[in-house]
């Protein structure tokens, strides 16, 4: 792969879905960023050094030429604007709105409900055990994935990927979400279109190389 | 106000933060859309007629010239692309990334955790009473608003509004979130920068006219 050399550093964690999205995005754009691991189970994201980079205390953060960019979707839109080829978004406003909506379903309506800080809260404040946390996580994954399946299946613009035959922002958000759903034990056979797109993505090095188990901080 | 006449119809609900964002956006762009109320307490968003419009069963949805756009942030980006004046986003990629990140904190990390369907789940499955639901909602609001305050206070690009001296996407997401926080009883004096920006927004008819208590379906 002929990666452009850029002075970018991605602060993330192998298992974070939001960092995973940005890893895929960087790979698709052919950008070789340095990776810094923020150990979430050890709460490094809440400690002062990382908070100085991102006051929200969440990963990812992308450092680039003196700026620090946060929030995975804002980072991906920035990548799209500063490195337009290959594009994450189609050219027409209606297509862009469709792709962004498909990306926002996992980003807003699934992932935030089942990420580490929420599961920790339910365990600590509500005394829930791991089985109950898995049930909670499966519930919100199932609701969102069911919606995505309905939005994609049979839609004339759904192709080999979520929108046409090239991967984009919707696929970048879908693949890590399916990874989470699998981890929580959700049966993905109920979502044949999503599973088909997931398999097509897995064939691409940009997606395969971004997988959690391929990261140096994977345990 | 010299509103352009367009054939748009916004399906929303007076109290939905996500619909509120799109109302502000339409007002800022000077677009007079028709409004259709989807009664969330009566679960109209989950019934077949609305599901045919939006399979996810969430508001808002914007109908325009045969298309149906969903997910508030995707709708707002579409409005920005199709109606560029006045802009929601600055011209420079770094500024756009900052504004989008500020918008995504409430959109991803606060609102989805305290919206109606989550509170209903905690009540039904976990047997939580209203006081417990309010505590849950205040917790996630406080975490997110604290981060926003840290991102905005003293930042050289923060102006009268979140980014400079004109309202944009970050303000569009901030104002409804502060409305929710207030409704759940959070003391907003801990967030002086957010409160100052909220007050500046309230002076603008585009924001004032979008407030829940000004909507025909407000009860």
Please, could you describe this protein's structure?
Two copies of one chain form a homodimer. Chain A is of the alpha+beta class. Chain A has two domains: 9-87, Glutaredoxin (3-Layer(aba) Sandwich); 93-206, Glutathione S-transferase Yfyf (Class Pi), Chain A, domain 2. Chain A has nine helices and four strands; from the N terminus they run βαβαββααααααα. In chain A, strands 2-1-3-4 form a four-stranded mixed β-sheet, with helices on one face. In chain A, α1 links the parallel β1 (4-12) and β2 (31-37). In chain A, α4 (93-110) runs antiparallel to α6. The longest helix of chain A is centred in the middle third of the chain and has 23 residues, at 130-152. Chain A is globular. Chain A starts with a strand and ends in an 11-residue tail after the last helix. Chain A binds chain B through residues 55-58, 67, 69-71, 73-75, 77-78, 81-82, 93-94, 96-98, 100-101, 104-105, 107-109, 111-113, 118, 121, 126, 139, 144, 147, 150-151, and chain B through 55-58, 67, 69-71, 73-75, 77-78, 81-82, 93-94, 96-98, 100-101, 104-105, 107-109, 111-113, 118, 121, 126, 139, 144, 147, 150-151.
Q: Could you list some keywords that capture this structure?
A:
homodimer, 219 residues, alpha+beta, Glutaredoxin, Glutathione S-transferase Yfyf (Class Pi), Chain A, domain 2, 2 domains, four-stranded mixed beta sheet, 4 strands, 51% helix, globular
CATH fold call of the largest domain in chain A: Glutathione S-transferase Yfyf (Class Pi), Chain A, domain 2
Beta-strand residue percentage of chain A? 5-15%
Count up the helices of chain A: 9
Report the CATH architecture of the largest domain in chain A: Up-down Bundle
Helix content of chain A: 40-55%
Strand order of the largest sheet of chain A: 2-1-3-4
């Amino acid at each position: 792969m002929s990666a452009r050399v850029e002075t970018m550093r991605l602060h993330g964690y192998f298992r974070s879905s939001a960092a995973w999205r940005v890893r895929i995005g960087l790979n698709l754009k052919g950008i070789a960023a340095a990776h810094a691991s923020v150990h979430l189970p050890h709460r490094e994201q809440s400690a002062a050094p990382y908070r100085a980079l991102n006051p929200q205390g969440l990963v990812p953060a992308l450092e680039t030429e003196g700026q620090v960019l946060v929030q995975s979707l804002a980072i991906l839109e920035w990548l799209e604007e500063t490195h337009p080829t290959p594009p994450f978004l189609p050219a027409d406003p209606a297509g862009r709105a469709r792709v962004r909506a498909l990306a926002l379903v996992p980003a807003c309506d699934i992932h935030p409900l089942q990420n580490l800080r929420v599961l920790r809260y339910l365990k600590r404040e509500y005394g829930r055990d791991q089985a109950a946390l898995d049930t909670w996580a499966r519930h919100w994954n199932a609701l969102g994935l069911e919606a995505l399946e309905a939005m994609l299946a049979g839609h004339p613009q759904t192709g080999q990927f979520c929108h046409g035959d090239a991967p984009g922002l919707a696929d970048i958000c879908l693949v890590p979400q399916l990874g989470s759903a699998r981890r929580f034990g959700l049966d993905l056979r109920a979502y044949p279109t999503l599973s088909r797109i997931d398999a097509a993505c897995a064939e691409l090095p940009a997606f395969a190389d971004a997988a959690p188990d391929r990261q140096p901080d994977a345990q």
